[in-house]
Every structure is written in structure tokens, then in C-alpha cells.
Predict the 3D structure of the following.
Amino acid sequence: MDISPILDGFGVVLEPTNLLYCLIGVIIGMLIGVLPGLGPGATIAILLPITYGIGPVSAIIMLAGIFYGAQYGGTITSVLLRLPGEASSVVTVFDGFALAKQGKAGTALGIAAIGSFIGGTVSIIGLTIVAPVVAGFALDFGPPEYAALGILGVLLISSIGNGNKLKAIIAACIGLLIATVGRDTFTGAERFTFGSLNLAEGIDFIPIAMGLFGLSEILYNLEERHNQVHSPAKVGNVWPSRKDLGQASGAIGRGSLIGFVLGVLPGGGAVLSSLAAYALEKRRAKRPERFGQGAVEGVAAPETANNAAATSSFIPLLTLGIPANATMALIFGALLIQGIQPGPQLVTEHPDVFWGVINSMYIGNILLLIMSIPMVGVFVRILRVRPAIMAPITVLITLLGAYTVRNQVYDIFLVIVFGVLGYLMKKFGFEPGPLVLAFVLGSMIESSARQGLLIYGGDPTGFLTRPISGTIFAVIVVVAAWPLIRKAIPRKTSADRVEEKIK
Amino acid sequence: MSDPTKPPGAEPGQAAVAMDLQEEADRLQAELEEARPPHAGPISQIAAALVALAVGVFGAVGSYALGLGQLTQPGPGLWPFAISVVIIVLSAVLVVTGRGLQDTERFSRSSLMTAVGLVTLVGLAALLPVIGFEVPSLLLMFIWLRWLGKESWRSSIVISVGAVAAFYVLFVLLLQIPLPRLI
């Protein structure tokens, strides 16, 4: 393995401006992630415009910083308010909040920060080794493989998320349809533009993401949900004792590995891995009844695993160009905005971006660890700020931010339209995540499929005879037919039941 | 020591733990969602599915008009037509099978708050190019604080003025972003 590009990547990351962007990202991510109701997805969506004006490497470094910063912010609300900021912090609540009630909130947060750091770092090392290999393998991919991979990605994410699968796939298809708005790149025909000049350029990713993930969340929280009075638990000493660390060390080690492996899977990687890591620790424990009563391992395991999974979920994005979850879809969109197509060519064509992003995570994790422990007091103070005050401020940041991207009021209206759409989707049980993800992948799937058809002279069976795309299509059929196969098998094994439950 | 990389559910004992765990997680989720309004009935489910169906029909008709072309030479409408057909089929299935789902939420009196909030957003977007961002932002902040957030008159005034001033300093003076503005 040639390590000189890796070292060059460090050179990029250690440039003072990039370090600064990384620091800003981590801090902003933590600050906004700590606000109940706004998880990593919403935070990144709201802050997308600020990355618009800076270079690609700096932008992604900052977004990655926002990403793990926001994730740690979610942990803080889990422990102190019993409000998980996102699905992957749900299990952290059990022991985290129990520890907080015993006056050991600081210990819980300290352990979570250390676990996140180690889990993240282990996962980055794995990423450094695995990603170039996968990318090298994927270099032979042609349009048929990309079309197949894109469809598989949309299908997996729709079928693994929470909620009704049918609704998720419908939402994804609507995302694919929205992606076709604008001028067709092959024929130049205008599609679904209704004569509007704005629509002829297609719909931009930023307003969609800001509306569906950011604004919709705020509108949704306006309904009686935001008047609850929270009083965060007191935070004592943040530095965990040697005994606590010793108790958590095994959980952190195992959590790192579970997180790395499960994080690569599309869909609920971080959620699944936090549940799996917690379950494993509970099973291994000599006194499992301690779990839920404030066991340090019960915080260490899921927090380590979800951070490791969050990091390894960059692998499919950077090597195949397939975002594994909604947050990765946002990063994908941000890269596209910067004129960079994530995929196997990334490592050879933009080694500075590829290694810059990966190596920035080492730095980001260190910064997160350094910032999180002393800044806990600040976060607790932010939690005391009433949501009633934060909501309009966040709204203004969102709307004015949307305007600043292209200095067009049209973009504000788009954000509002998609904000309302997202709100209504939530009210009617449709998740916005699959829609955004499918929107991002939409034009890639369409152009690959059409190029593939050209290669095979209009014969769609050509997609099936190529070994890799054929295999992927076989997997697609299995995934799509899985619910029916499930029903056809009369007796389930216990392992199946667990798998189903966990999903 | 067992293999740490082994996925969950590999052993029956662990499977039981994972099941309990999932139940606990569900309980917690349910508790957190107590603040949610009660779920709406089958009519809302059918309505949602019909809306999706309408989107599919609209897409199919629109893309058919664009021209489907041939597989050797796909027209601009082929791909959106294919997606629209999938939407139509899936929403039709949803209309039939989705009646019993419990994942829709009823609109309540507090949904009015969302409507009011929405009006302020549209107002901001409409007024911004005309009179600049200061006054519309101030109004939006004030309405959200005083009526949607039930803050006192005093704190609503102080916070909205303070926040808009901070925005002015940040966007206009520090970042020099060309926002339309009054002053």
C-alpha cells in the first residue's frame, strides 16, 4: 500500500485554515446537536449554505466535524434530559439517564466522549485500510453496475428504516421523480418545468435538504411538543474514575468492532450497532441486572459503536458513491455541489479530497474529545434555553441561509415548500429520509441506466448478463421479495426473530 | 471470550437479551412520543395513499406526454414514466392494505400554530426583497416568541430585537453577505 497520498492528506488537514474549519464544525455541530429535536441530519441540512462559499476539502472537513459534533450533542440530551437526539442514542438513555439521576451525569458524558473517540479512531483506521481496496475493486464498474448499485441503495435504505416499508419506498420513488425535474441531459427536453425558468435548471439539493430535514423538524415541533419544561440533571465531575474506565474498556473495544462492521451496511448501521453493542455487553456481564440501573458499560458500548458505525458509513459513500444513510446523502449532496463526484475515481482523481476527508476525522475526533469534556457546562446552559426561543432563531438561520446560497428569494420559497412537504409527510407516516436519498441518487441512476441501454443497443437483459451488475440485480430481487419470502417460511428461528425485532 | 465481531442474535441467549432490549427501546420511544397527538384513523391513511397515487398518475401522464421513445433511443419521458408506474402500483397497494396502519397523526388545535408559523415564513420571503430582512425578521421572531412560544411581552421584545441585531452584525458586518436590507 502506497502511503504517500495518506501522508499528503495529513498535510492538507493540518493546514491552519482546515484545522479551523474542523474546529468550527465540531463546535457548531455540538451546539446545534444539543438542541432537542435537531439531530445530525437537521443540523447539517440547516448549515449546508455556510459550506457553499469555501473550497471542497475545507467544506467536507467542516461538515464531517458538524456530523460527529452533532452526534455527541445527541448524547448529551440522552443523558441529561432522557431525550435521545436520534435513533442511535436511544439505548444510551437507559444507563445514561440512570447515571445522571445518581449524580454521575458527568461520568456518563465523559465515558461517552472517550468511547466515541476510540470507536471513531478505530473505525477510521479500518476505513484507511479498507476504502482504497473497495475503491480499486469498483474501478471496473460501468454504467450498468452503477445503475444497479443505485437502485439497490435506494431499496435498502427504504426497507431498513423505521416505519412502514411501502410508504418509505413510495417516498423514495417520489424523490426519484423530483430528481427528473429540469432539462433532460440526453435530449435537452424540459421535464415538469411548467415553463418556469427556475425549474428548468432543476431543483437544487440544498433547499430540498434544508426544507425536508431542517424546517420540517421545526414546524413539526411547533405542535404542542415544544412547551415541555426541561430541567437538565446536574453534571458532576466529568473525568471518569479509573474504576469506571476499567469497567468500560472492554465495552469500548467490542463496541468499536461491532460499530465498524455494522456501519458499512446501508440503512440502520448506527442504530443497529448501538443496540447490538448494548445487547452484547448485557449478555457478557456477570450481573446483567445492573444494566438500566446506571452501568457504565451501558453508556460506553452504544456510544462507541454508534460513532464507529457513523465513521465506517463513509466507506460506501467514498468508494462506491452510494450514501448508506440520510446523513451520508447530505454529505454526498455537499460533495456534488462542490463539483466532486464521490465514487471509485475519487481516490485517484481527487486524492486530496479523499485522504483529506478521512484524515480530518482523526483530527475531528481529537478536537471533539478535547472540546466535549470542558464544554459540558456550556451545553448544559444551552439546554436551559427554552425551545420557544431557539425555534425562531433556527428558522431565521435556515431561511436567511437558504437565501445566501444564490441570493435568490426563490430558494427561500423552495425551502418553505419542502418544509411543508416534510411536515405533512411526518404527519402521514412517510419518512423524508428515503426521499432525499433517492433524490440525490436519482440522476445518477437515470443516466447510468440510459448509458447502459445504449451500450447494449436497447437490450435490458445486458444488465443481467454482466457478472457484477447481474449479481447486484439478483440481490435487488431478493431484497424486494424478502417480505414475501419471510411469509412463505412458516417457522422462524430465534435468530430471525431478533433480526426482525432489531430492525 | 466470545468473538466480539459476531453479529447479534448469533446465539439464542443473546437473542433473548436483544429482544428484551428492543422492547425497552420501543417502550422508551412510545413514552417520548406521548406528547404526540393521537393517531388519525383509516380515512387519513387512505387519503395519504390517494395523494401518492395522484402524484403517480400526474407523473405518468406528464412523462407520457414528453415522449417515451424506444429502449434503443429512450425519450425524455421514459424514466419518469417508469417511476410513476411504480408509484401508482405501490400506492394502489397502500390504499388497499394501509387502512389499519397507525402511523398518521391527527391535526389538532396546535396544528394551527404550525399554520401561523408557516404564514410568517411566507411573509418573510415575500417582504425580504421589498423592505430588506430587518423588519420581517423582527416580526417573525416576535410572533414566534410571543404567540407560538408564549413568552412574555418583555422577553419577546428583548429577544427578538437582540437576535435581529446579532444577525445584522453577523451577516452584514462580519460576513458581508449581500442580504437585501433596509439600512
Q: What stands out?
A: Chain B touches chain A through 93 residues (CB under 8 Å). Confidence is low (pLDDT under 50) at residues 1-12 of chain B. Residues 42-66 of chain B form the longest helix (25 residues).
